[in-house]
Write a structure and sequence with these properties.
Distance between the termini: 57 Å
Oligomer: single chain
Largest sheet: 5 strands, parallel
Number of strands: 11
Radius of gyration: 28 Å
Order of helices and strands: HHHHEHEHHEHEHHEHEEEHEHHEHHEHH
CATH topology of the domain at 2-120 and 268-357: Rossmann fold
Number of helices: 18
Bound molecules: adenosine-5'-diphosphate, magnesium ion
Mean pLDDT: 85
Strand content: 5-15%
Helix content: 40-55%
CATH architecture of the domain at 2-120 and 268-357: 3-Layer(aba) Sandwich
Length: about 475
């Protein structure tokens, strides 16, 4: 349990430093504008941390204030969620509302999003635990590897130097003087044997693939069956010849697995999912269509009804144990072009009390999006072409022109927000991307004239633009 406390206190400390201001600063590195949405998620995160610090009776009273992000396509909703996920070190899943079907129908039921969350939490905890036992695991692995190198278990190595004990059967290994083992161990640690080939025995993981069928709506049962079968069928031992360096890695992994207790991972994973988990439900507006409409409406409302208990707080059974959803933070997002948030069933609306609007992006933001984020498109293309020895330089008026065209196209055809920049840039640079291998050493200036020459015809021809840009 000491390990668990250490891990959780490290997480605490990290989250303590993640003030709302810092969260917004981090998001600013990738997402331009949309301050309101950034602030809302930052506050929601902080509130969860604050709740953790309350006395237990009070803690259970504080329910998370779920957020609904409303904004047109390509305004940064998903991007905010993605960046948030990287930042918070808490279990996080992003799901599409449209992927779920009402319980009883063929397809994924909404509870599976909680199972996915726990799965993610399990993965995180396991990774942290593995990190903590890594040193110890490595020492065990080294010992095992020395055995193999000395010919234990019929293994053996072709040493590049005459080694008196190579290839000896296991029974005689005991007579190997300790100092010889030490010598070999020291060589191993200095990396001198890294590239030698050694034969080791590894336990392949049992796989129930192909044994279990998928009865509709019985995903959980299927998972549990799979788990049981995996444990019942021990993986076969396999011999493999690998480089010493790789062998050490494989054996360290194996030893680490032996040092961590799956039960312990499971219980901590559940704790983290329950108390820190975030589920991001994208495209929520797509299940909000009023049910008197045409086809499929009823089952959409069904999905909303299924979603409700999750958001209100229920217990979902997972293969790691029951998970309470009371304090999981839900962030829903949608464009709400056709439906309004008020087209959601009222109970569900009430469970997303924080509404934030993301603004449609215009030329001004496009200029910034093209240049400021760490992963800005202009930077990406520059780096891509640099690998061919072709150098791109974007001038200010070049960027302005790209942004302007993107805006015009959004107005004239369909408003797809910042996504438009991707298609415009790709079209703009198409020829260079094609010819780059023959252009080694050249520098290409992308200025206003260049952009105009490449794109003005297309931008003016609305019909063509609809298909190409
Ligand atoms: N505010 C923004 N700042 C920076 N990039 C953005 C912004 N909005 C959208 N993008 C870019 O546009 C693309 C689509 O954005 P996304 O967040 O997926 O849109 P949506 O709001 O439809 O979920 C992404 O590549 C993203 O990087
Ligand atoms: Mg999206």
């Amino acid at each position: 349990m000491e390990g668990r406390e250490k891990r959780l206190s490290q997480l605490e400390e990290y989250l303590a430093n993640l003030t709302p201001k810092r969260v917004v600063e981090e998001l600013d590195k990738y997402v331009i504008g949309q301050e309101e949405a950034k602030r809302a998620v930052a506050i929601a995160l902080r509130n969860r941390w604050r709740r953790q610090r309350l006395p237990e009776d009070l803690r259970n009273e504080v329910v998370p204030k779920n957020i609904m992000m409303i904004g047109p396509t390509g305004s940064g909703k998903t991007e905010i969620a993605r960046r948030l996920a990287q930042l918070i070190r808490a279990p996080f899943v992003k799901v599409e509302a449209t992927k779920y079907t009402e319980v009883g129908y063929v397809g994924r039921d909404v509870e599976s999003m909680v199972r996915d969350l726990v799965e993610e939490a399990y993965r995180m905890v396991k990774e942290e635990m593995t990190q903590q036992v890594r040193e110890r695991a490595r020492r065990f692995a080294e010992e095992r590897l020395v055995d193999y190198l000395l010919g234990g278990g019929e293994g053996g190595i072709n040493l590049p130097f005459p080694f008196p004990f190579g290839g000896q059967p296991k029974a005689e290994r005991r007579e190997i003087p300790a100092y010889k083992r030490e010598e070999l161990l020291a060589k191993l640690r200095r990396g001198e044997l890294d590239n030698e080939i050694v034969e080791i025995e590894i336990t392949a993981k049992g796989s129930p693939a192909g044994i279990v069928m998928t009865p509709p709506g019985m995903e959980e049962l299927q998972n549990q069956l799979g788990e049981i079968l995996k444990n019942l069928i021990p993986g076969p031992k396999r011999r493999r010849k690998v480089k010493v360096r790789e062998a050490l890695e494989i054996l360290t992994q194996e030893e680490a697995e032996k040092l961590i207790d799956p039960e312990e991972i499971a219980s901590e994973a559940i704790y983290r999912a329950e108390n820190f988990g975030i589920i991001f439900i994208d495209e929520i507006d797509k299940i909000a269509i009023k049910h008197q409409g045409v086809g499929g409406g009823v089952s959409r409302e069904g999905v909303q009804r299924d979603l409700l208990p999750l958001v209100e707080g229920t217990t979902v059974s997972t293969k790691y144990g029951p998970v309470k959803t009371d304090h999981i933070l839900f962030i829903a997002a949608g464009a709400f072009h056709l439906a309004k948030p008020s087209d959601l069933i009222p109970e569900l609306q009430g469970r997303f009390p924080i509404r934030v609007e993301l603004k449609p992006l215009t030329k001004r933001e496009f200029v910034r999006i093209l240049t400021e984020p760490k992963n800005a498109l202009t930077r990406q293309y520059k780096e891509l072409l640099k690998t061919e020895g072709v150098y791109l330089e974007f001038t200010e008026d070049g960027i302005e022109k790209i942004a302007e065209y993107a805006e015009i196209l959004n107005e004239k055809t369909e408003n797809i927000g910042a996504r438009r920049l991707h298609t415009v840039m790709e079209k703009l640079l198409e020829d260079i991307l094609f010819e780059a291998p023959e252009m080694k050493g050249q520098t290409i200036i992308i200025d206003g004239k260049f952009v105009e020459a490449k794109l003005s015809d297309l931008v003016e021809d609305t019909e063509a633009a609809k298909y190409i840009l």
